[in-house]
């Protein structure tokens, strides 16, 4: 089902893997050595832009003209998305801690959503990034709600997961809050500690509700209902967008899953390789990259989660070149294509395995070390060539089966005519 031998699956030699690791370490050093005033200026510009956009959007929502109000709603959704992803998510990773600025530090930044930043940081930075796509250790694999690999046994509740997925997308900030809360509860055993954890998230939820649905509507006077509807709409739009970005980085075809045994003696080379095989990018220009918090570069983000997101475009050029050099796949497709592949997996795995065609070792959403056993002579220098040859072999096999089926149909027709 999932991959157990990561190095073997990659078709890399130990020497190749060590050299690849050295080159990835060199990328980190090069970026760290060149961090400076231009990077600091970037994050300060983003903060000013986000705050100005939020202010002007909230003022626009008060306008009597419907077109301007809708611009305000969209602007507020964009401002909240920028705050959550380009700011909250990336600052929470410690990408700007090197500045020693108390305002822009992972330990002090509290993002504009119902989840508690500190709770999310442990769940995301440790449980997810350290154990990316390791079954039973990474709770981001379907968020314990969706079935996204056949390694998760089918249950009756999965039949409703297309609807669950839509509901999850619309309420994504609440899902993140519960995700962080559950992670903190797993960390502590005592009742008192767990009560403190629940109290923290309850206080944060109360503060967000008061800000968005009490203070701002009251300031609007007679347009309270208008502001309430606009804020709720902006929140839902923000949730839908952030959910789409996240599923594009983790659920499309080719984002591999791994068994707990695969990390038993894991060192940095294997960790690097697991990040490269377990994540996916989507193609984006500068505007789409910014709108996604630069999480269109999910591969680079998982390799270097604490490097500034604004550096990911230049890092991506070097990572892609390394994938070409070592014959490894670089999983990147257009945004809508990745989104469709992720949704297709969610739809398909709502069904029991007996209704699925591909094997559990060689399906688009689920692969194992055994996928190359079914067809001989697929080994190449690296994984990309091996996968390409495997696809060619499977296409040839399908063509041969189709040819035999057509010959069988033609033979039956000939026999039928001759009997007449």
TrEMBL record:
CDD domains: Delta6-FADS-like. InterPro entries: FA_desaturase_dom (IPR005804), Fatty_acid_desaturase (IPR012171). Residues 74-333 form the Fatty acid desaturase domain. Pfam families: FA_desaturase (PF00487). This is Acyl-CoA desaturase. It comes from the Bacteria. Coiled coil: none annotated.
């Amino acid at each position: 089902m999932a991959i157990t031998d990561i190095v073997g699956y990659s078709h890399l030699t130990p020497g190749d893997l060590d050299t690849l690791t050295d080159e990835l370490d060199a990328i980190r050093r090069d970026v760290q050595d060149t961090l400076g005033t231009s990077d600091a200026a970037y994050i300060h510009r983003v903060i000013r832009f986000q705050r100005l956009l939020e202010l002007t959007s909230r003022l626009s929502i008060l306008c009597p003209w419907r077109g301007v109000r809708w611009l305000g709603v969209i602007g507020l959704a964009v401002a909240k998305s920028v705050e959550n992803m380009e700011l909250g998510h990336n600052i929470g990773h410690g990408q700007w801690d090197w500045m020693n600025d108390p305002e822009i530090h992972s330990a002090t930044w509290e993002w504009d959503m119902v989840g508690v930043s500190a709770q999310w940081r442990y769940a995301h930075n440790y449980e997810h990034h350290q154990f990316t796509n390791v079954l039973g250790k990474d709770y981001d694999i379907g968020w314990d709600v969706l079935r996204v690999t056949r390694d998760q046994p089918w249950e009756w509740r999965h039949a409703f997961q297309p609807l669950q997925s839509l509901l999850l997308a619309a309420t994504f900030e609440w899902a993140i809050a519960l995700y962080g809360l559950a992670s903190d509860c797993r960390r502590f055993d005592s009742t008192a500690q767990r009560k403190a954890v629940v109290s923290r998230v309850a206080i944060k939820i109360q503060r967000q509700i008061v800000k968005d649905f009490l203070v701002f509507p009251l300031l609007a006077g007679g347009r309270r209902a208008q502001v309430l509807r606009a804020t709720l709409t902006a929140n839902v739009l923000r949730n839908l967008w952030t959910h789409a970005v996240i599923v594009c980085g983790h659920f499309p075809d080719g984002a591999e899953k791994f068994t707990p045994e695969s990390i038993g003696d894991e060192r940095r080379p294997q960790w690097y390789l697991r990040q490269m095989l377990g994540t996916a990018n989507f193609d984006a220009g500068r505007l789409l990259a910014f709108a996604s918090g630069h999480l269109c570069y999910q591969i680079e983000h998982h390799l270097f989660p604490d490097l500034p997101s604004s550096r990911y475009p230049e890092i991506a050029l070097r990572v892609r070149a390394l994938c070409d050099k070592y014959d490894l796949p670089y999983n990147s497709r257009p945004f809508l294509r990745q989104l469709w592949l992720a949704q297709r997996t969610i739809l398909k795995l709502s069904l029991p395995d007996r209704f699925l065609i591909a094997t559990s070792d060689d399906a688009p959403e689920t692969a194992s070390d055994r996928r190359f056993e079914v067809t001989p002579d697929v080994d190449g220098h690296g994984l990309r060539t091996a996968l390409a040859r495997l696809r060619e072999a499977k296409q040839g096999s399908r063509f041969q089966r189709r040819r035999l089926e057509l010959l069988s149909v033609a033979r039956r027709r000939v026999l039928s005519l001759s009997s007449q």
